[in-house]
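Dear support,

We are seeing what looks like truncated structure output for some complexes. This example has two components. We would appreciate it if you could run it in full and send us the complete token output so we can diff it against ours.
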Amino acid sequence: MLQGVKLACVRGDRQLFSELSFEVRPGELFWVTGPNGSGKTSLLRMLCTLLPPEAGELRWRRTPVRELGEAYLGELTYLGHAPAVKDDLSAIENLRFALEQQGVSVSEEEAMRALDAFGLGGREALPTRSLSQGQRRRVALARLVFCTQRGLWVLDEPLTALDTQAVELVREQIAAHLARGGVVVLTSHQEVDLRGLRVHKLLLGEGVALGEGAQ
Amino acid sequence: MSAAGQVLADVPRAALWPIFASVVRRDLLLAMRRRSDVLTTFFFFIIVVSLFPLGVGPEPNTLREIAPGVVWVAALLASMLALSRLFAGDYADGTLEQLLLVPQPLALLVLGKILAHWLVTGLPLVLIAPLLGLQFDLPGAALGSMTAGLLLGTPVLSMVGAVGAALTLGARGAGGLLALLVLPLYIPVLIFGAGAASAAAAGLQASGHFSLLGALLLLALVFAPWASAAALRIALE
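Here is the complete output from our reference environment:
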């Protein structure tokens, strides 16, 4: 469903990876790992069209992403390194604005319920500047509850600063999305409990992709 | 594959207008939450304009003559002051990345941000300008054409400024660079804006100046959001 053909990435004067090819099938978790600076975030940004590949091509449902344009973006949910949460807005405002801009309109009750599920009950109306790092991350992740229609989730280090309970919540969301036939791309430094999920692992390393294989 | 096919089929095509409105509303709400930023621009404008009568002395003819130029230069500087914040906050917290991934033309979303920015930093200047003009003993006709000129000109300032803000995004010393980049581009607006008020004060027709300001506004409306969007894409690469 998501296919990379001989992708290459150069940042500054360093070649992060080249000749990187992969194919992720529906219902698969694409787990990108590697040491710091090996190009995980660059690869994910490339998947989101934020970073054009130096060489090679990215395909979604066998069509080059460049030709799909906005139709591709309409199927994409991206959670980046920065959580895209505004300090001066409350959790509920953050969630609703973020969703509105993805073309999903949710009522206040629905948004409340999602934030409740992510353990933010009673804190929905506080400015997020007063929340902890992990709680702000939870506000960003609550978006996933409403992005079920989008085939491709690209999550950059979604588990940073989360406690075990929140990690489990994210795992549930990911598992449900895979069961729907979606694709999830994930980077994580933490060990993730991936039992029962179809995982396609990619190890990025010094200048080249070291290994690739489905578990 | 069939399940995945359904995922694709069910994707609702997001309409442009609600997204545009949402961008504007969020920026206005953020401005309301951080009122000090907005008030800084507003009072900077008032204070700079008010300093001139004190410095130049109470000679009515001199004051009347310099009034349009003073108000316009103050408006340029005040609008510069707020520019660096236009994209910087969104850039820092990742919101800008999300904006780039909205499946709608980025230029229109940028236009929404510019509109919100003008509503909180440009429009207040337009509204207070007639009052400030009184300090310079401007006649009624000149006050009117100065205000009308500002109404046409300040959106151009916001739009040209947005291109500069997008180009200098993430650069070191962005503030100074932004001023060097944008102030020369403000010159046509300054000439025709101040010219309209001076012409009206002298009892001449100001319509030529207004036509040119209107033309600048249309030109900026077409090119500035598009150029800012392109610059933002480069800044985020």
